[in-house]
């Protein structure tokens, strides 16, 4: 399982976690408070998971379901941008998620280090808040996806072993065994 987790971590994820690690001199709350970035949502509203998702509504209705994962820095940035005037005043046909996410990703990649540092601080705050709301939360990877991965790994292993050598060797009979 250790290899699987390491394999899925992108280089950007590793690089950004090192670059925007917690500041030992300032708390995350101070970093956010001192930020000059414009927040379109209240900080507490931004840190809590949205209650308009299908997953949340199903959990309310049935009481069954997995809690959502904590929000990462980009998701917090995306939610904040979606509440801004640039996106809120758009026509419904221009609000398709795949187009908006791509556009916001472009904004995210061009943001200054100070803004990114602010949203990584928000990410850590959101993780703490998520831990308070969902105390026994533990992320469990989807079994269907694990099954697909196992099948591809066994397929790759079997195809490698079948390509290794086509000649079979038999033990030679010793002169005593006639």
TrEMBL record:
Keywords: DNA-binding, Nucleus. Pfam families: HMG_box. PROSITE patterns: HMG_BOX_2. Residues 157-178 have a biased composition (Low complexity). Residues 67-138 form the HMG box domain. Coiled coil: none annotated. Gene3D superfamilies: High mobility group box domain. Residues 67-138 bind DNA. It comes from the Eukaryota. It comes from Rhizophagus irregularis (strain DAOM 197198w). The keyword Nucleus applies. Residues 1-26, 153-178 are annotated as: Disordered. This is HMG box domain-containing protein. Transmembrane segments: none annotated. One of its GO terms (cellular component) is nucleus. The keyword Endoplasmic reticulum does not apply. GO terms for molecular function: DNA binding. InterPro entries: HMG_box_dom, HMG_box_dom_sf.
């Amino acid at each position: 399982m250790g290899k699987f987790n390491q394999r899925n971590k992108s280089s950007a994820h590793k690089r950004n976690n090192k670059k925007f690690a917690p500041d030992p001199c300032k708390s995350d709350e101070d970093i956010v408070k001192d930020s000059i970035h414009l927040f379109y949502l209240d900080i507490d509203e931004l840190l809590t998971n949205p209650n308009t998702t299908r997953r949340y509504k199903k959990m309310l209705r049935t009481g069954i379901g997995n809690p959502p994962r904590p929000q990462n820095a980009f998701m917090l940035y995306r939610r904040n941008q979606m509440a801004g005037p640039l996106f809120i005043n758009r026509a419904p046909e221009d609000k398709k998620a795949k187009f908006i996410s791509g556009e916001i990703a472009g904004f995210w990649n061009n943001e200054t280090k100070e803004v990114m540092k602010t949203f990584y601080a928000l990410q850590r705050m959101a993780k703490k808040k998520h831990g308070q709301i969902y105390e026994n939360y533990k992320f469990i990877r989807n079994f269907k996806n694990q099954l697909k991965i196992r099948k591809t790994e066994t397929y790759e292993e079997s195809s490698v072993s079948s390509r290794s050598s086509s000649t079979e060797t038999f033990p030679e009979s010793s002169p005593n065994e006639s």
